[in-house]
Structure formats: C-alpha cells, structure tokens
Design the sequence.
C-alpha cells in the first residue's frame, strides 16, 4: 500500500427519486473535473417539501480522491 | 426574501419498505395539521428487527414550516 | 415489560444496490450467530467509488439483541 | 408492527430530590395534554446550586408519542 | 425554586440585518402564542447569499418556557 | 502500570426503579461471561412510558475489561 | 438582570451510592474555595467496577459561578 | 425544483468589528472566484485577543454554491 | 515559534446589547486576573427572555493564554 | 468488490512509549482471536500521569474485520 | 492584525511510520499547489491493517491558508 | 476506592518534534503548580505551518488531578 495523499471535497447531490440517486448525481458531477475518486461519506441528509410532499432529496457527501504525485 | 419565522417539529416515520417511504409517511402525517412545510432534515435512522430480518425502517426527521404572520 | 439486558454489536453491511440492502445484509449475517435481535441504528453511511461511479454502499449499524438469562 | 408516525416533544422536568423524580415530573406534566406516550430520551442533565448545595435537578427529555391516524 | 416543568420549541428567525435581529424576530413571533418564555439557545447559524452578498441571517433557536400547572 | 489491552462491550441495562439499578443489572449480566471488568461509561439514557408513567429506565453503558495475555 | 460574568470549572465527583451523591460531593468540595456557585451541567457519567460490581459512580460536572466585580 | 449539484467550500473571514462583518468579508472574497453562491453555515466562531481586548473576530463558514451543468 | 504552553479558561459573558458585547465583557473581566490572553472560542450562545423579549445575551467562551515559564 | 460484512470491535491499547505503540499493541492482541482485520479508527486518546509525568498512553481504537461467509 | 480571509482544504496523508509523518506528507503535497499555509487541524485518525499489523497510518487534516487579496 | 473529587484543567502543549512531546510539555508545565495529577485526555490536535512545513504540534489536553481534602 503506497503512501498516497487524498483530497476531500464536499458536495450536495439532489434527486426527486431517492437518497441513492442524489448521491449518484453528486459523484457523477464531481467526476467531470476530478479523477481517481475513491470513496464518499454522507454527512447530511435533508430535503425539500412542496405541496405537503417531499419533492427533493438533498444528500451532502464528502468525496475522497487520490492526488497524483 | 422576506423575513419569515419558521418552526421546526420532529417526527419519526416508519415503513416496512424503505427509508424514503418512512420519511414520506412522516411528512404526509404532519401535513394533516401543519401548512407551509418547507424542508426536512434526517436526524436519526433506526429500525426494528423481528425473526432475524428488518421489518420496519424508523426515520426521525425535523420538519421546518413557515409561521404565518 | 420485564427487565432484560441487551447487547449491542456493530457491523458494516455492503451492497451494490442500496442503503436498505446493505443493512439487510448486515442483519442477515449477524443472525447466523446471534439470536433475539431487536433493533438497529445506522451510525455511518459511506461508499466506494470506482470508475467515477458508486459501486458499493457501506452502511454501519449497531444491532441490539436480548441477552438470555 | 403497523406503520405509525411518532411525534417528539422536548421538556425539562425539575426536582429537588433526584434525576428520576425530575423525569417523572416532566412525563406526568406532558401526560396532561398528550396521549399515547411511548418513550423518552434524556438529552441534558443540569441543575441549580444555591447556598453551596444542589437545590434542583433539571433533566431535559425528548418524549415520543404515537400520532393517531 | 419551585419544581416547574419547561417546554422547548425550536424556531428559525430571519433578518437582513444581524444575528441579534433574527433571534429577536423568532422570540417576538413565538410570543404571539406562547407565554412565560424564559430562555433561548442558538443551535444553528446560517444564511442566504444572493448576488454575491449575504442577504439574510437565519438563526435557529430553542426557546424554553414554563408550563403552567 | 503494565501495558494491558482492554476490550469494550456495549450493553443496555433496564430497571423499573432507577438509573443506578439499570447499570447494575447490565454489569451483573456482563459478569456472567466476562472477567476483569474495570470501568463503565454511560452513553445513552432512555426509558419506556406506559399509561402515562415511566415504567422502565434503559441505560446504555460501555464496559471496559482487561484482556488476559 | 445585571450583566455579570460567570466562570466555569470542571470537576469529577465520586460516590459508592448514586449519581446524585457524586454530584453533591463535587459541589460541596468546590464550595470550599469558590463562592456564588449558580448551576452545574453533567458532561460525563462513568464508574468503576470491581469484583463484578459497580463500586463507584464518577460524575463529571461543569459548575458555573458568578465572578464578583 | 431542478436537480442541481452544489459544492461547499470552507473559509474563515475576519473583522475587527463584528461577527456579521467577518462573514461578509469571507463571502465577498469567495465571490471573486466562485459564482452562484447560495447559502452559508457558520461552523466555528473564534477570535484574537491582544492587550486584553478582542481585536479580531474570526468566523468560519461553509459556503454552498450551484455547480453549472 | 517557541514552544509555549497555553491554558484555557471558560467564562460566560452577558450583555443586554449584542453577542460581541457579551464576549468583550468576558474578556475584560478575565483580564483583571489573567495576563497574556491570546484567543477565544465561542462554545455556547444562549440568552434570557423576559416579558416576551430578549433581555440578555449569554455567550460562553474559552479563552487561551500563554503560561509564563 | 464483493459484498462482505464487516464487524467492529473496540479496544484500548496502552504503551509507555508512544501513541503508535499503543495502537500496535491493541491490534496485535486482537489478532490472537480475530482474523482478517482490515482497518482501525482512533476514537479516544488518553493517558495516565504519575509523579508529574506521562507514564502510559491509552489509545482506544475501533478495529474492523471481514466476517467470513 | 489585518483582516485576511483564510480558506480550508481537507486532505488525508498516509505513512507506514507514524502519525506525524502522515501529516507531514499531506502538508508537503498541499504545498505543491497552495501557498501561504498557516495551520492544520487533525479531524480523523485511522489506519490500514494487513497480516495482523498496522501497515499504514491515515491522518485526515484540515489545512488553513491565507487567500491573497 | 475512597471517594475523592478530581478537578480538570485544560492546556495546550506545543512541540516542534511530536504529538507526545507536546503532551509531555503541557503535563510538565502543569506540574509546576498542580499536585496529584492522575490522567489526561487529548481534546484537540492542531499545528502551525510555516514555509510549507509543520513547524509546531499543538495538542490540547484535559488534565485531571485529585483535590486534597
């Protein structure tokens, strides 16, 4: 196991469908500018209510990725 | 953005199906007595086990709603 | 309500599908060696990313079960 | 286990005698206006000091009760 | 010091001016329906940004008040 | 002070009487299978309500014990 | 309500009897050197186990007192 | 409500005047390089003392902004 | 940067005016007996309500100061 | 990445030398009865003082290991 | 003390040797792209176990640096 | 085990060498004015960066000592 350094970024993904879809959205968006993502950790789980119903899941994740040497 | 005041209530929704269904149940029940709900935040995620299987998801949410003037 | 004593164990279940499946996996595995499981509480929600996508949900749960007299 | 929704309220009970008496006082008072209380959780344990002695135990509890359909 | 029971409610006050004004707004609004308020505790301090500037302070407070016998 | 290793287990003791009795119950039950217990730490203090009264104190403790070499 | 300044000190009281006795012991000892104590808050609840039994309750409290002008 | 992804950055603003000015400074500086800022959340409130007086307020904020598609 | 040791003390300052004034009051009072104060950190933000209005801000701060050799 | 289940155990390792040695001691002791250990996480860092000097580092770690199918 | 704005980034450094070496590695790597680093704060201390031994220390740090005007 | 009362003080030790040396420094300095120190607990682990390198470890510890009767 070589001694890499990892960086963390924090994003909030959103979805009208599910917690999982919100996380997938955040990871997909991060992948447009970051390579070598390795793990995520959910730090907050919130949502939007409209007309008496949950209309959006908002999931905040920390994403860790390997910094290239 | 006008200067509203929001109130928070805390409920636990339950579902045999999923985390999302448990939250939806809590929000739907709250909507019977509260208007103008705006957001929720999950504060606890627990469940019941029976016969060696998860039989109920129990999700505690704080719900915020606008207080009318 | 008789005065039982409960023990807690902590496990991480994993699934490529969903948060719920990861918890179900942890509970099913625990049931191979522990009887009388009663509840669980999620203490951490993480996951693995590969090729720019979430490939595994990793959900850490505390499971409580009744100790027999 | 049917899929109820539970509501939480937070109170501080006080007693010159003990932690338990302070909780009992909070639960008894809540019972004047709330039915179907099911559990409590202590979130803060404080007290008042006068004349160099503890004169009051102040115990903050969250009480959960079943919302009727 | 007689053994009262106190109830807590949680509100978010908002103001375009300051933290203090947001708290004052929450307390004033609560006072329309609650008597005998005694203390508050700030649990969250957030705000809204628009056009690159803070346009609203959002302060969440728990307010404690004496329940009458 | 020799360099021992200690293990922690987590249990919930219950009692209809008091916080102390609930802890004593957990420690006594743990002592049936664990030797050399050294300390405990309360991590959660909850209870059951029935008929508008506290009928059970539920105290979760971490217990530390010396692992024999 | 005049604008006093309060100082906090943290002590651990111990007792073979109860949580309350341990707090009382800490407050009594603090009173030997500090005047105008006003409140306490429990920050940790631990204990010692010997011979398979709880032999000492160890309760850590923060004590607040008025600083004289 | 379309399904955006938001990114969070953390900054510490400083001011010799007030908490609000320190936050305003952090948001203004962030706006030099980030567009579409939406909200902030205070995570730490510290300060510098010199000559026995507070000479600087240091407020750490998380700022959330919309990532463009 | 020489290797000093710093001590922390915790105080609650109060003010009828503002959060900043309450902190200033605590720091000024501490300066009557402590030299070489270097920083503070707010750990709690509470207040007193009377007649339906905030009459006192109560801000708890940890103050760090250099111990002289 | 196959869908394993992991179990966590918590131990306190001790050493008169260093934090690292205390962790190494806990992991070595755990390895006498547990196979397939994968990671650890430090949850508490304490120590013993005697004669005015640190005589023992006490590091509490959670250790995760793969449960075999 | 002029009113700078500081930014925080979070990284995980790794080392087979020690906690300090892991932090040094993270700081050194950050210094390749960031100037004016001022402080760090450890937020998580974990590690990897292989063959029953700690093979890697993983230390997560928040690093603060001055933003140039 | 007689029923002593313990007091806690909080200090930050610093060292250019290691975490352990910073703690040792804090304990040694405390021992100039306090007798009967018994244990410490690390509550914060920070450091100073200069010229792109860690130049100082800053470790905050709570130290507990027995109060004489």
Sequence:
């Amino acid at each position: 196991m070589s001694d890499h350094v990892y960086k963390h970024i924090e994003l909030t993904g959103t979805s009208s469908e599910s917690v999982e879809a919100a996380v997938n959205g955040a990871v997909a968006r991060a992948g447009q500018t970051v390579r070598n993502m390795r793990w995520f950790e959910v730090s907050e789980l919130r949502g939007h209510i409209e007309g008496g119903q949950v209309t959006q899941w908002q999931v905040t994740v920390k994403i860790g990725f390997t910094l290239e040497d």
